[in-house]
Amino acid sequence: MRRRVVGWLAGGAAGLAVALPAALIPGHGEQTSTASEPAEQRFGPGGNGPGDFMQEVIAAVRADHVYIAPETGVALGDTELAAVRAAATAGEVPVYLAFLPDRDRAGAPGYANRYDALDQLMAGVGEPGYYAVLDSLTLAVTDAVGYRWPYADSDLLQGRPGPALTRYVTALAAEPPEPPYDDTAASDDDGYWGGPVSATAAGLLMGVGGFLGLLALVSIAGAIRRAWR
Q: pTM value?
């Protein structure tokens, strides 16, 4: 029985000494990807393409930069609509905007919400630029293809629809162009531990783990010697 207990203790210590540092070695920890699936993969060729309604929206935005669906109840005169479209092409980066009906009131026009519509619009048009989708004159969602995400204050949408849309598109077009964040490159450069500071911390953890494992082995060795006396 004494030999069996000693064997269990020795085996447990050896396992601890091996497993603890191994758990800290890159490639042995659990890795979870938080990268979202690109819109081109979700709605590009071979994917779940847009329905008839969104195809019409995409074609109109591709041709004229600005599309206001009749279902929104917002009707601009020719002069007002021309002003919004001129603002969309006046900046260094073109703006593509779709004013769509609220899905809750319009039934199911082919998108789950304004964010889904924005994804479909970017993938469908596919041109570098700033993109915006509105489903009311209170809130817009924006993103970009080939550039960093742009921002324009939704308060600019207050007031009469024509001037409000012109103000908002003008603000978007004035956003200085910046390259998009390259999260994948940063991840590749940093490696598993996420940079020099994290790598140093990981090295310290491995050192502590190895030291604790060594102490466990020394303790068990002492117990074995005492058990055999």
A: 0.61
